[in-house]
Design a protein that fits this description.
Blueprint: H1 8-12, H2 30-39, E1 41-48, E2 53-58, E3 63-68, E4 75-81, E5 84-88, H3 91-97, E6 107-109, E7 117-124, E8 137-140, H4 148-155, H5 163-175, H6 179-182, E9 190-198, E10 205-208, E11 217-222, E12 226-232, E13 252-258
Antiparallel strand pairs: 1-13, 2-12, 3-11, 3-13, 4-5, 4-9, 4-12, 6-7, 7-11, 8-9, 9-10
Length: 280
C-alpha cells in the first residue's frame, strides 16, 4: 500500500544479528552422556494410543525416549517440573536460545522465573534430515499444538481429539482433577517428529509428511524431575490434514532409562539466578 522510500534498499541491507548467542550457554558435552547411554537399562515404557495422550515421569539423571513403533506419526510434548506444575517447558525461549527446530545438544528450557534446562537432547535418529529445499526441518518449537478453539474458529466444529484436548485429559487423569482444571497448565509444545517451516513467499507456517519411520527416536536426559505428557497428533504424519478422524494415525512409545549410578555425576540445575527485584 505504500511506495518504498528512496533508501529502502539500504534499510533492507542491514546485517542480521543473532539475538541470543548459543556459545554463551554451557557447552553440550557428548562425552558426559556416552558412558551413561551405554550402561542404561529400560525401567518403564508407556504406549500412547492414536489420537490420545499419555503421561510419564522421569527422575533427574534418567533418560527418556519418544519412539516411533508402528507408522509415521508426530507427537506433541508438554513437560513440567514434577513437583511444581507452574514450572513448565518454554518453547519460545527454547526457540530463541537454539533454533526453530531442535536436535542433539539442544536443551528444553523452563518458563520464567526459573528459566533453566529441563531436558537435554542426547540422541536424534532424524538428525540427518537437516533443512530441505522448502526450508523445513524436524522437531519444531514453532507450532503451538492443534486445539479445539482454532478448529472451531475455522470450521465451526467441536473436535475433541486434537492435541490440546488430549493433553488436557491426560494431565487431568494424572492429577485426579477435571480437564477444565488441567487445561490452564497445557502449554506450547515440542512438535516431536513434525516436519515444518515457513513458506518462502508468504512466510506462512506449513507442515509436510514427517520423515519418521518405525524405530526412529529422539532421546532426552532429564535435568530435573519431570512430568511429561505426549499426544499422538490426529494429523498422523501431518502430510495431509491437521485434525480429523480419517487420517491414518499410529501409537507412539515413551521409554524411560536408568543409567548406572557411577556412569554420570549429575547435579540438578538451580532455578535462574536473577534476583527478581525488577529494578524496584
Amino acid at each position: 500500500m505504500n511506495a518504498p522510500p528512496s533508501d529502502a534498499a539500504q534499510r533492507r541491507a542491514e546485517p542480521a544479528i543473532i539475538c541470543y548467542r548459543s556459545d554463551q550457554l554451557p557447552a553440550y558435552d557428548p562425552g558426559k552422556f556416552a558412558a551413561a547411554r551405554q550402561s542404561m537399562q529400560k525401567i518403564n515404557e508407556v504406549i500412547v494410543p492414536p489420537r490420545d495422550a499419555g503421561t510419564f515421569e522421569v527422575k533427574a539423571g534418567q533418560f527418556f525416549r519418544i519412539v516411533s513403533v508402528e507408522g509415521s506419526q508426530v507427537g506433541d510434548l508438554n513437560l513440567w517440573n514434577a513437583g511444581n506444575l507452574d514450572e513448565r517447558f518454554f518453547s519460545g525461549k527454547t526457540r530463541q536460545l537454539h533454533a526453530s527446530h531442535v536436535t542433539t545438544g539442544d536443551r528444553l528450557w523452563s518458563n520464567l522465573p526459573s528459566l533453566r534446562p529441563m531436558a537435554t537432547i542426547t540422541h536424534d535418529t532424524l538428525d540427518w534430515y537437516g533443512w530441505d529445499e522448502d526450508g523445513a526441518g524436524v522437531h519444531d518449537v514453532i507450532g503451538t499444538r492443534c486445539d479445539p478453539y482454532t478448529n472451531y474458529q475455522l470450521q465451526s466444529l467441536h473436535y475433541h481429539y486434537c492435541c490440546h484436548s488430549n493433553l488436557s485429559r491426560a494431565l487431568a487423569t494424572h492429577q485426579n482433577i477435571t480437564p477444565q482444571q488441567a487445561e490452564p497448565h497445557i502449554h506450547d509444545v515440542l512438535n516431536v517428529f513434525m516436519c515444518t517451516g515457513f513458506t518462502l513467499d508468504t512466510h506462512q507456517y506449513f507442515m509436510k509428511a514427517s520423515p519418521v519411520r518405525p524405530g526412529d527416536f529422539i532421546e532426552f536426559f532429564a535435568e530435573i524431575d519431570l512430568l511429561g505428557a505426549l499426544s499422538t497428533c490426529p494429523g498422523g504424519n501431518c502430510g495431509s490434514s491437521h485434525s480429523d478422524d480419517t487420517t491414518p494415525c499410529f501409537p507412539l512409545m515413551v521409554e524411560v532409562y536408568q543409567p548406572d549410578g557411577d556412569s554420570i555425576q549429575h547435579r540438578t540445575p538451580p532455578p535462574n539466578g536473577y534476583n527478581g527485584t525488577h529494578g524496584v
